[in-house]
Amino acid sequence: MDLQNRQLLLLGLLRIQTMHGYQLNQFLEEHLDFMTSLKPSTAYYTLERMAAEGLVEAHAEQAGNRPTRQIYAITPAGEIRYRELLRRNLASYDPCESADDIGIAFLADLPPEEARQLLAEKRALIQDRLDKILAAEDRVDAASATHLSLERVKRQHQLDLEWLSEVEAWLERALAQEAEPGSAPEP
Amino acid sequence: MDLQNRQLLLLGLLRIQTMHGYQLNQFLEEHLDFMTSLKPSTAYYTLERMAAEGLVEAHAEQAGNRPTRQIYAITPAGEIRYRELLRRNLASYDPCESADDIGIAFLADLPPEEARQLLAEKRALIQDRLDKILAAEDRVDAASATHLSLERVKRQHQLDLEWLSEVEAWLERALAQEAEPGSAPEP
DNA sequence: CGATTCATGTAACGGGTTACATGATTCG
DNA sequence: CGAATCATGTAACCCGTTACATGAATCG
Questions:
Q1: Least Cα separation, residue A4 to chain B (angstroms)
Q2: Are residues A80 and A52 in the same domain?
Q3: Which of A101, A106, B24, B106 might form a disulfide with B149, Cβ 3.0–4.6 angstroms?
Q4: Chain D bases under 7 Å from protein CB?
Q5: Which residues of A43-67 are buried (b: 16+ CB within 10 A; e: fewer)?
Q6: Within an 8 Å CB–CB cutoff, is residue B18 touching chain A?
Q7: What is the reported pLDDT for A63?
Q8: Predicted TM-score of the model (pTM)
Q9: What does residue A185 show for φ and ψ, rounded to 5 degrees?
Q10: Residue B27: per-residue pLDDT
């Protein structure tokens, strides 16, 4: 995720409610883990940057004897920036290329039996994530826009599983053809 | 795309045929444009690195009065590395998060009418890419593993289009509700 | 003749991740 | 009491992209 979308995300969350960095990171990990991989350090850094740009305002707060924390609030300039970033995001399309494509393109370079086992591992990983997404789905208001995003991610995983089945079918055919000479062709 | 997958990709191509950098870049742009966004400079750099590691061997060649070019060939060490990388790739899953999800999650923050227009732009971009992918599909041997990768990318785009339709439907509902007070809820 | 293609690089930049540091606090 | 949580940062590092440079060759 690039700087712009990190800013969009953080501004969007701060628009709902002022928060401190830790709180934001918690929220990200709890509710948006499957949509973004924004790391705590990066979030803190982005918040500082935005504070320097005047997009957010920080004010220190002490709760009991806990470490001082910076409460961030979006500024009017931040609101404007937020709109800009949101418009840009909605009007664009990021193709989001998968590393999986590269491996599969060279699938014929491994013995089919070995390939099958490796793909089984991949399948398990996808299934695992999908299960977590399905669980998360229950915790999101079905009428909210966030639900739409989650829905996309869910379908993405379902698609990958379906597609993987076809890859496996392709492998089966390759395995069957192994009996007779003449192996699978290349790019 | 990270270093490992770049290496996997380049090694896989060099395994088929020895090539010079420019030739590789041409091939990438012509045949694998939709699957990877490996830039020329990065490809050259990766090749040098792999040469230093002994994964590939370069030897200079002069064709006519053209600039000298480095022909790269995969080495036995490279073959071993290739297998490793391929295994790792096949057994793993990279979730490939989309920036689109972030924007959509905040969809309710824009006037529905404006959002609709922006999403129309997004749709056009996806459709455009899909058309190019469909055209590219005809040029790929349907029995090859590369075809499987392309198939995934194609479905990815189709999914995004379908999903976008649902987002639009959601917007229509929001627009309809605009008449009566009570706006769309937030994450 | 001017523009594009061939073919390779380099230098600089910003960007993001990892790993680590800190220090108090609450929980088991 | 030791471990995890709260809360924030920093420093180092690699990494990838952009932009630019070069210089001959061919195409229109």
A1: 10
A2: yes
A3: A101
A4: 6-11, 14-20, 23-26
A5: beebbeebbeeebbbbeeeeeeeee
A6: no
A7: 66
A8: 0.90
A9: -80, 170
A10: 92
For residues B73 and B149, membership in a common domain is answered with no
Judged by CB atoms closer than 8 Å, whether chains meet at B34 and A140 is answered as no
Is position B56 within any domain?
A: yes
Residue ending a domain, choose from B56, B91, B126: B91
- CA B79-A176-B76 angle, to 5 degrees, is 5
* Cα of A64 vs its chain's centroid, Å: 35
In a domain, A159, yes or no: yes
Could you tell me the CATH number of the domain that includes residue A74?
1.10.10.10
Instruction: Give CA–CA dist A161/A123, Å, rounded.
Output: 7
**B108 shares its domain with B81:** no
A106/B118 CB distance under 8 A? no
Average pLDDT for runs of 10 along chain A of length 187: 92 94 91 89 93 91 75 95 95 89 95 96 95 89 92 96 97 79 50
What range defines the domain where residue B71 resides? 3-91
